[in-house]
Amino acid sequence: MKLLVINPNISDDVTALIGSEALRSASPGTSLVVRTAGHGVEYIETRFESLIAAGAVAEIIAEHTATGGSDGDPIDGVVVAAFGDPGMPALKELADVPVIGITEAALCAAALQGHRFSIIAISDRIRPWYLDCVERFGLGGRLASIRSINETLNAIGSVQQDFKETLLALSRQAVAEDGADVVILAGAPLAGLARELRGQIPVPVVDGISAGIRMAEAVVGLQSGLHRAGAFAPPPVKARKGLSENLDAALTAAQTAANAAASTHN
Amino acid sequence: MKLLVINPNISDDVTALIGSEALRSASPGTSLVVRTAGHGVEYIETRFESLIAAGAVAEIIAEHTATGGSDGDPIDGVVVAAFGDPGMPALKELADVPVIGITEAALCAAALQGHRFSIIAISDRIRPWYLDCVERFGLGGRLASIRSINETLNAIGSVQQDFKETLLALSRQAVAEDGADVVILAGAPLAGLARELRGQIPVPVVDGISAGIRMAEAVVGLQSGLHRAGAFAPPPVKARKGLSENLDAALTAAQTAANAAASTHN
Amino acid sequence: MKLLVINPNISDDVTALIGSEALRSASPGTSLVVRTAGHGVEYIETRFESLIAAGAVAEIIAEHTATGGSDGDPIDGVVVAAFGDPGMPALKELADVPVIGITEAALCAAALQGHRFSIIAISDRIRPWYLDCVERFGLGGRLASIRSINETLNAIGSVQQDFKETLLALSRQAVAEDGADVVILAGAPLAGLARELRGQIPVPVVDGISAGIRMAEAVVGLQSGLHRAGAFAPPPVKARKGLSENLDAALTAAQTAANAAASTHN
Amino acid sequence: MKLLVINPNISDDVTALIGSEALRSASPGTSLVVRTAGHGVEYIETRFESLIAAGAVAEIIAEHTATGGSDGDPIDGVVVAAFGDPGMPALKELADVPVIGITEAALCAAALQGHRFSIIAISDRIRPWYLDCVERFGLGGRLASIRSINETLNAIGSVQQDFKETLLALSRQAVAEDGADVVILAGAPLAGLARELRGQIPVPVVDGISAGIRMAEAVVGLQSGLHRAGAFAPPPVKARKGLSENLDAALTAAQTAANAAASTHN
Amino acid sequence: MKLLVINPNISDDVTALIGSEALRSASPGTSLVVRTAGHGVEYIETRFESLIAAGAVAEIIAEHTATGGSDGDPIDGVVVAAFGDPGMPALKELADVPVIGITEAALCAAALQGHRFSIIAISDRIRPWYLDCVERFGLGGRLASIRSINETLNAIGSVQQDFKETLLALSRQAVAEDGADVVILAGAPLAGLARELRGQIPVPVVDGISAGIRMAEAVVGLQSGLHRAGAFAPPPVKARKGLSENLDAALTAAQTAANAAASTHN
Amino acid sequence: MKLLVINPNISDDVTALIGSEALRSASPGTSLVVRTAGHGVEYIETRFESLIAAGAVAEIIAEHTATGGSDGDPIDGVVVAAFGDPGMPALKELADVPVIGITEAALCAAALQGHRFSIIAISDRIRPWYLDCVERFGLGGRLASIRSINETLNAIGSVQQDFKETLLALSRQAVAEDGADVVILAGAPLAGLARELRGQIPVPVVDGISAGIRMAEAVVGLQSGLHRAGAFAPPPVKARKGLSENLDAALTAAQTAANAAASTHN
Fold it and tell me: Which residues of chain F make contact with B127, given a CB cutoff of 8 A?
């Protein structure tokens, strides 16, 4: 199984964190292609930054679905590796393979291990966007709290080192004061920290990246079939202009596949 | 008052419909700048098409907020003229003037005139995206139904002529069978049709474009003040790359204004 | 456009505050008729006081819709100028023009400018009633908080002067601690205060009275059509007794108009 | 135990139906005072008619709480005997005894006997008001359906005879098609019909009037104590004008009792 | 009327508390059979303990419905006397008489006396289970708070004596800080405490046991009819094995009665 | 990884279906122990049958967690293989390994592949229980519909053969009429059918058993840590009686492990 893992922000050090944790999490038979957004911001904290990131992620998905990627082997699934799930669920329309955000993956991993969960986040500004994301997925009723660092970050690549004690304290408060049965350490910059803190937090701790990899493996493994009707079928054929070459090719490919299926059915 | 009205799809004939109805709706002191998306699709039916459109709308907003627009006069508000509100509410972060989608405007216009409302749409595929939009605005509990044309469209510019009888029948069914107190004729391609059908539908009928113009005038007129804190303040200053020149300039301008305000407060 | 603005409580000094802010907010072509409830209480804080007020408002609407008002010119819309929207949405049945409460107007104005909003209120007792009102409108999911003065009021006409610093502090707490993107200064006794405090609160601030005027102008301007079916059509013809002369006449007039429309349709 | 049972509409034949079923339902030690609204409409179908009725009910409650009623014996509880619960929950502020609507009573009786329930109603117009009432009580999530007679009523006093077969058919459809575990025959004009139809409907059938009587007995029997704080304490003392003598006296009495309690606590 | 009151935990001293308060609450014509769970735990605090208790309660219900109980007289209703309502609503399928939990009874008693209510509980661990119970009943939107003792209990039979001051303080905080209109003293170990504390808490106080008895009397008195269709009809006939003799007999008896009814209908 | 897969009903032919599909779904490194409930019913359709099944499942979990199972090797996770998730989430308290129901697993698998999903069920009676289960998991807002066979089943082991065409038709209706983006074939008796029908249904089709296996593998693989606080920690130590030897031992073992952890933390 080959998974395309996309860092929706432009920080290579975050991509490195993502890549390391993804490798640690992946099952033996899974190979990973890890990519960084071609345009965007250093790290995503707002709804608008997430919108920009969504466009950048679409380009990378399109590149791989249109061409099969750099090595010609098709990918079997996509993991969008920023908490807040930029572009979801819209991006699921773009490919005939599962496209999964790390937030939705983490929410499922948490919801299967307890009833209420808290999210620990890297900045106060990021919280409304995360809350949107949880509510849109439909699990807002199970959110115990979102707690966040309210200090200025030095560097996005070292957040988990710089604020380890703060993140541990926030996690424990979520359990003791907010009633969290599970804690989610949110955001790609925290990738891998859950492994380190687990023994020190008295409930299961979910890491977004590893949840994303494991859930993608699970869903890809199910081979549930393709969207040939409904809201996630490829967008209908119609005039378009000004899209990137990859995006244009990806849409054409998707529509062609969908039409072939339709004609088979008739 | 000067409003920037943006057609998020690439169809000039839809822009013409939008422009005409916007003109008919605007108050005497309101001037309009009507623009068409620089890239995208013929008309927007899916979550992914909406994501593409959101990027195109951001570019136009950025162009105007960064430069003051073609004539140098600053705009006082923005109307995003596609039902489904591509890019909302993220786009509200991008400008220091109100940015209002025609769906949210129509929902408010409907909610102030009755309790439950129905949306009449141009295609079956478009319904899940519209439903998302209503739920995200928070008024899902007041939605009586979404009814839609389930036939192939000939041309997007002539939908309202081609399917007038169908749209009228759907509207009446929404009242008689679904309990709608108000009917919303959704989608820029239907701009202006409400004026024509009103006498023939036994409840108030809301047109997205005119609701967008009127609600934008109302909100701009309130001069409620700027977002200098919270989730709609300009995105924080951070490294970015690969954005268009306009977007980059708009973000810089927004952050500069926000910082100036912050230093004044301190 | 001629708007009837009704103060649902009996305090003339509150009516004066309402009238002043309504005048400052109205567009050039709008004329205002401002009226005070004929019976009721000094200011409304409870569900029962709101029920009493609703009856008083109904009498004034009936007087104008039955007779066209003191000058014989028909009104084009009604603004019910008490936060908590006494009698809504029931009163919308009573007239063939839009009848709009200042809470629902303020909620729309806030919802179009941000995602979550807080309400700043003049007493602790008033909060459950306001919460009901927000939930019934359907936007309870976007309410960040209701904060209130918990001191005894000296005089209802001077609340905004007497407690300016408290109201400012509550507003800032709503932003900093509750996540409000927009603050609503609630209650007719605070009419006009938003203009004064705006620069000192770091998010948009909405005033109920001016929102009511602007939103009423917008909705009246849309000319969406009449309720001739559904839950807001005039109440069916049936035996009644003991109603005031105006109310009786208004119901008769409404039913006559509705029947005329019905016979036209057949 | 002495219960005041109020018919919120002006129809004496409906009062007779209410009185008969109330008598059949009451426990041995319960005495009933049955009253008809002094003003209002023949039967209540709309939100506005309900608002008018709420005022009429308030007058009767006030008359009894201020004076102890015609025989001088105080009442122990009030049943508001119109489905849709006009004036609820506001009227609970007005008396130091439980004031209970037949809808909320019927909802509780249904919710204790099954999970989902349907409401069978006497007219299509009445449904939105009933739906409001269920949602405001908080049990909207358990409502299977509201089904209604969609024919013209001959006389309100004979609805249950005239439409018995229709009402039976609607009840069975609610079970078979809508998933109702319990059926509520709604509206005082149907008082007593449940006794007759029970054997013919394959789930429990709840009558509003008898539920109102039984639930009022249960709650009065609990002697849970008085509202001396919170949203249902008597309205605060303040200037008022134009209220009826009874209402004025009732408010004064309530406030006096509340103040006495407060001074005792201090 | 004969009610079977079941203590779902194994503590005889809690059964004694239940029995005493049940006797104080019952109407003159009501006789009580009070039983203790045959297996289970000392007191129930968790979802799993509640699951164990549900099985024990089923055995006792089965014993009585299969045989008519020890004295051969059939019971008219069942009260499941542990807050959290173990086995509800499933247990309602098992008998042709109303089976009512004390939580659902207390929620109805509270909801009929105010709008928002708080629950005062004996341990922190117990809160998530209680919250589940309120949400599943459908009244989560009216829950002001759940407050609890966070100290170790000495003995379950003396909790109300040992922590009287704490429970009083928690109740007052619920009113003053959480907006509770009604306070529910939760859990059979607190049975009877409400009578003692009422004068000292400024809102109505509901006791679970007495609410259970009173609501069961009310519902039994309504004689609403049997479940012969829908989700609470007896489970369909099918192979089973390993059930207790009583349970097996109860299911057979229920199915036989249901089939008899079905053949009568055909 | 060793998973314990429990059939909560007593039918060996359903266990065989479960075992076959579980084997087909499991990853190479996963070994399975498949067990049938020791007591209960042929197949579970009602809330009460589910309650009985929950007890039977608890016994099997207890047997394995107390003893390590028949071969002495500890299990790494548990899959409860009946749709409707009997005993969830309570059973998660009982073991220090993930315990996952096939419904919650299927809901996650569906929610990661689309927005709205439908459930196809084997009987009408089963639907309310399934609906409860979806709502309690928190994803009720994404449920498009539950459709079911409304004919008598011949034999539970051959449902998928006997009703293949019906199940296919129901699935297609869910897509075309209800707006399902994903279809879940619900219930262990349908195990494996999804593989066969996938090509004939135009959206992804999820099988409960394979979703259960894959999701359990994913969650076990995450090694998120143990519940040592919060609602899923082992139940507190307290007197108990009458439990089976296995259950008693399992609770003791869980509490011992929890206490050891607690003393380590202190």
Answer: 179
* E204: closest CA of chain D, how far (Å): 4
Asked if the Cβ–Cβ distance from D180 to E225 is below 8 Å, we say no
Neighbouring chains to E with at least 3 Cβ pairs closer than 8 Å: A, C, D, F
Q: Are A89 and F232 inside 8 Å of each other by CB?
A: no
Tell me the C-alpha distance between D86 and D45, whole Å: 11
For chain F, the maximum distance between any two Cα atoms, rounded to a whole number of angstroms, is 61
pLDDT band at E70 (very low <50, low <70, confident <90, very high): low
Q: In E, which residues are within 8 Å of D141 by CB distance?
A: 138
- Contact state of F138 with A138 under an 8 Å Cβ cutoff: yes
Whether residues C231 and D46 touch (CB distance < 8 A) is answered with: yes
Phi, psi at residue E80, to the nearest 5°?
-95, 110
Residue E5 has pLDDT above 60, yes or no: yes
**Whole-prediction pTM value?**
0.97
- The pLDDT of residue D266 is 47
Report how far residue A84's alpha carbon sits from residue A103's, in angstroms, rounded to the nearest whole number. Answer: 6
Q: How far is CA C261 from CA B174, C257, F8, in A?
A: 19, 6, 63
The structure tokens 């494991």 sit at A214
Q: In the predicted model, is pLDDT for residue F266 greater than 50?
A: no
Q: How far is A200 from chain B (nearest CA, A)?
A: 32
Average pLDDT, chain A: 94
CA-CA distance, C149 to A102, in Å (whole number)?
Answer: 43
DSSP string, B4-35: EEEESSS-HHHHHHHHHHHHHHS-TT-EEEEE
Q: Which of F204, F211, F218 sits opposite A227 (nearest CB)?
A: F204
CB–CB of F225 and A217 under 8 A?
no
Average pLDDT, stretch A18-44? 97
CB count, 10 Å around CB of C256? 12
One-letter amino acid at E160 equals Q
What phi-psi label fits residue F129: left (phi over 0), alpha (psi between -120 and 50 degrees) or beta? alpha
Is the confidence at residue B185, as pLDDT, over 80?
A: yes
Residue with tokens 């117009």: D125
Q: Do D91 and C42 touch (CB under 8 A)?
A: no
Average pLDDT over residues D41-60: 98
Q: Do chains B and C touch (3 or more CB pairs under 8 A)?
A: yes
Contacting residues of B for A125, CB less than 8 Å apart:
231, 236
Quote the ipTM score: 0.97
The chain A residue lying nearest B91, using CA atoms, is A48
The separation between CA B54 and the C-alpha centre of its own chain, rounded to angstroms, equals 11
Give residue A259's pLDDT: 84
Contact B217, B120 (CB under 8 A): no
Q: What is the mean pLDDT of residues E125-140?
A: 97
Answer whether residue F222 shows pLDDT above 50.
Answer: yes
Which of F45, F48, F50, F78 is most worth mutating to test chain E (most E CB atoms within 10 A of its CB)? F48
- E and B touch with 3+ CB pairs <8 Å, answer no
